[in-house]
Write a structure and sequence with these properties.
Layout lengths: L2 H20 L10 H8 L3 H7 L5 E5 L6 E2 L1 H4 L5 H18 L4 E7 L5 E9 L4 E8 L1 H35 L5 H32 L6 E5 H18 L3 E6 L4 E5 H18 L5 E8 L3 E8 L21 H7 L5 H11 L3 E7 L3 E9 L5
Parallel strand pairs: 7-9
Antiparallel strand pairs: 1-2, 1-5, 3-4, 4-5, 6-8, 9-10, 10-12, 11-12
């Protein structure tokens, strides 16, 4: 149990218990104000509860209305706040009747809120309730489970394909068949290797502390990214052009920024139609730099825009596997931008293309 919960329960139980026991042998004026407050339900009670950083409520036996601290009041708003109030009141009444309450409640919101409620008696004088917001924990656990399932699938598929192809090669004497099968084995091996490389890069990006921070010429950075993908674009008759402010500079990790832009350009090449155009554009502001990667490709459905930066999320699974994507590229981009204290936006129209905008402060946050 959280140490704050233990302390809060101990404090509440001690004060309320002290108040009840002390009234038998001492006059009301001799009882400390804090104990009088909780014992009588005066205005000091909420003030005492507000000192606790965790959401908590107390219902004394002689009071009809529970005392709730600010942390509990701030936990939710709108219709969710009403539902939480009802759940708190119900749990306190049950605890007052001797029931030890421990339950998890999910409120759909928006935004979604998942809470753990724990309630019990206070030395016979009332009941306490502690609320723990576990929304982020549940979301993290769910993401971890999904991540393990996804990576298992992403690696199992090419490894399984290699095994099947190797079995088919046994005893094969036709050189044309051998060449075809070994070619497919090589492709599947490269696919597994690409997944592992992207996983390592994502892991390093998530935990990164800049080791090679430098002043980077944005125009030179865009030129190097363009040069890396010019050949792939040329094969599809796609033109990559650079526009923007000259002599623009940003402070950051060159390798990370090149990786982020490379992932965006790689996606733009893969999902652009033959004969399309990819534009790399830099726009200098007073305090930040905006770098755009725009294409005239297939676009992204509006329903998917909020999820494209999630690990392994694919707009079109069949199309992505056909182009060799791992579903990790945009997650890497997001973490690189976050590492630099920036933000990323995307606009897209199906059938017309997409535009990703990286807004980076000129002085990167460490």
């Amino acid at each position: 149990m959280n140490v704050f919960i233990v302390i809060a329960i101990a404090v509440l139980a001690g004060i309320s218990g002290y108040a009840v026991k002390s009234t038998r042998s001492r006059s009301q004026s001799e009882i400390p104000p804090e104990a009088q407050a909780l014992a009588t339900g005066s205005d000091l009670g909420p003030d005492i509860l507000d000192l606790l950083p965790i959401p908590i409520a107390v219902l004394l036996r002689d009071n009809r209305k529970p005392q709730k601290n600010r942390a509990l009041s701030r936990l939710a708003n709108g219709s969710t706040a009403i539902l939480i109030d009802d759940a708190v009141d119900s749990a306190l009444q049950r605890a007052l009747n001797g029931e030890q309450v421990s339950e998890t409640l999910t409120f759909s919101g928006p935004p979604q809120l998942i809470c753990e409620l724990q309630a019990g008696r206070l030395n016979g004088s009332g009941a306490y309730l502690v609320v723990t917001d576990v929304t982020e924990k549940v979301r993290t656990d769910s993401m971890r489970t999904d991540f393990i399932a996804n990576i298992s699938h992403e690696l199992k598929t090419p490894v399984g394909a290699v095994a099947v192809l190797a079995e088919a090669l046994l005893g094969e004497t036709d050189q044309a068949v051998v060449n075809r099968l070994t070619s497919r084995m090589l492709a599947e091996s490269e696919r597994a290797s690409k997944t592992i490389d992207d996983l390592l890069e994502l892991s390093q990006t998530e935990q990164s502390v800049f080791e090679n921070t430098a002043v980077i010429a944005v125009e030179e950075l865009l030129d190097s990214v363009k040069a890396r993908y010019d050949e792939a674009a040329h094969q599809r008759h796609i033109e990559i052009i650079i526009e923007g402010t000259k002599s623009t500079e940003v402070v950051g990790d060159r390798q990370q920024l090149a990786s982020a832009l490379g992932n965006l350009v790689d996606n733009a090449v893969k999902y652009s139609t033959d004969g399309g155009v990819i534009t790399l554009r830099s726009i200098a502001g007073d305090e930040d730099i905006t770098i755009e990667v725009c294409d005239t490709g297939v676009g992204i459905p509006h329903r998917d825009l909020d999820r494209i930066f999630e690990r392994f999320y694919r707009v079109d699974k069949a199309r992505s596997r056909g182009t060799g994507g791992t579903g990790l590229g945009l997650a890497i981009v997001r973490h690189v931008v976050t590492n630099h204290g920036g933000s990323i936006e995307v606009t897209s129209v199906e059938g017309e293309g997409s535009c990703f905008r990286l807004v980076l402060p000129k002085e990167a946050e460490q």
